[in-house]
Amino acid sequence: MNRQLKSEGKLTAPQNFKLNNGANGAFSFKPRWDKVANADYYEIQFKDMLYSTITDTTLLFENLAPETAYSLQLRAVNKDGISNWTELKVTTEANPLQFAIKGLTAKTTAENQKGEGLKNLFDFDESSMWHTKWGVKSDSFEMIIDLKGVNKLDRLSYLPRQGGGNGTLMKGKVFYSEDKTIWIPATDFDWKNNGIEKVITFKGNPLARYLKFEVEKGAGGFGSGREMYVFRVAGSEANIAGDINNDKVIDRNDLTSYTNYTGLRKGDADFEGYISKGDINSNGLIDAFDISNVATQLDGGVRESSNSALSGTLALSTTKSTFEKDQIIEITVKAIALKDVNALSFALPYDAKDYEYLGVSVVGMKSMENLTYDRLHSDGNKVLYPIFVNVGNQPTLSGNEVLFIIRLKARHKLTFNLKMLNGILVDKSLISKKL
C-alpha cells in the first residue's frame, strides 16, 4: 500500500510545464510546473526512466549532453489515479567550455603554496584554488603558461577567489609566443580586487603556444585564483604539440612515430601531411626539439629547474685529416661548456661514395635514448642524424665530456671534411639553442 496516496478527486494535466530563465544549461536543466489540485505527487518520464513520488513542482536533471534535444512527460498522481501526460521538449545549451584548451601547465617565478599549486588553476574545477606561498610576499612575479600546442587564441578568462582578497591578480602585462623566446605584447590589465570574472580578448586571434603574465601587483602581495581558461577560436583545430598520430593523447606511440621519422625533412616524400605537423619548431626538419615535446611528457614527465640556464656547444674532431681506403674514421663529439642539456641533435651530410656509416659508440650520454638515424633523403642525399633525448625526468648533460663517437669507413683515400649542420640543444623547459 502506497501511504503517499491520500487525496481523492479528478486530476488535470499539469500546466505551465516549462523552463524559467536560467534553468537550462549545457549539462543540466530544471523544469517547473504549476501545482495540480488534488495531486499527492508527480511523475516524470525521461529517457526510459520513470521519476516518481516528486512532491515539489520542480526537478533538476543533471549529467546531460550539450546541444542535445530531450523530451520529458509529466503527470499528476493521487489515490484515485493519474492525469494525462504533459510534454516538454528541451534542448540543452552549448558547452561554454567547448573551446577552452585542456591540459595546460604553468610555472611561476614565485613559490607556490603546497596543496594549492598551479595545477589547480587549470584543472577545470572551480572549487579548487591556486595560491602563492603563504607568508611570502611576491610583489611582482612571472607566470608562463604552456598551451601544449600552437592555438589560434580567442580569449582568456580568469576567475579570482570568491569575493576577491589576497592574491587576486590586479595589474600587469600579458604576452604570447610560439617558442618562449620571442614574446609579443597582448595587453595590459588593471583589475579590481573582487571575485568577478576577468576577461582578456586576444585582438587578431594570434597563434601562440605560450602565454606569459608579468604580474606587477597581486592583492596583499600574493597570487591566487580559482581557475583560468584559455579559449581557442571557435571551430579552430585543437592542436597538441607532439601528437603526431593525432589521437589527442601524448604517449609512447608518438615517440615511436618520431623515432621512425627522425631526420625527415621538408622535400622528402613522407614529410608533407601529418608528419609536417610534427615539425613543431617549423625548421623543416624532425629534430631533437620536436621529439622533446613528447619525451618530456612521458614516464611521469620532467621536473623543470627554476634556475635552468641552457648553454654550451658541441665540437667534432678526428685524430687526423687524411684516411686511406677502408680505414676507420672515428669522429669524437665532445661537449664544450654544456649546461642543462636534456636533448641534442645535428645533421652530418656525407657522400655515400666516400663514406660508409658503421655506427655510434655512446660514451657520456648518461640516460639519454639514442635515436640516431642514417637517412637517405628523397633527393638522393645521405645525412646522418645523431639524436639523443631524455625520456621522462632524467639527468641532464653539463660540462666538457666526450659524448659519443661516430664511426665511418673510408671507401677510398680521402681528406675528411664533414661539417655539422642544424645543431640544436634543448632543455627540460623546451628552451632551445641553435648551434
Question: What are the SSEs and their pairings?
Answer:
Layout: E1 41-46, E2 49-54, E3 69-78, E4 81-82, E5 86-91, E6 105-108, E7 130-131, E8 141-159, E9 169-177, E10 184-190, E11 198-201, E12 207-218, E13 224-225, E14 227-232, H1 252-261, H2 288-295, E15 311-317, E16 322-323, E17 328-341, E18 343-350, E19 355-362, E20 369-370, E21 373-376, E22 382-385, E23 387-389, E24 397-399, E25 402-410, E26 414-415, E27 421-426, E28 432-434
Antiparallel strand pairs: 1-2, 1-3, 3-4, 3-5, 6-8, 7-13, 8-11, 8-12, 8-14, 9-10, 9-12, 15-17, 16-26, 17-24, 17-25, 18-22, 18-23, 18-27, 19-25, 20-23, 21-22, 27-28
What level of helicity do the residues show? under 10%
| Intertermini distance | 85 Å
Low-confidence stretches: none
Number of domains: 3
- Please describe the biggest sheet, giving its number of strands, its sense, and whether it closes into a barrel: 7 strands, antiparallel
Kindly state the number of beta strands. Answer: 28
Description:
The chain has 435 residues and is mainly beta. The chain folds into 3 domains: 96 residues, Immunoglobulins (Immunoglobulin-like, Sandwich), CATH 2.60.40; 128 residues, Jelly Rolls (Sandwich), CATH 2.60.120; 124 residues, Immunoglobulin-like (Sandwich). The chain has 2 helices and 28 strands. The strands form 6 sheets. Strands 6, 8, 9, 10, 11, 12 and 14 form a 7-stranded antiparallel sheet that branches. Strands 18, 20, 21, 22, 23, 27 and 28 form a 7-stranded antiparallel sheet that branches. Strands 1, 2, 3, 4 and 5 form a 5-stranded antiparallel sheet that branches. Helix 1 packs antiparallel against helix 2. The mean pLDDT is 95.
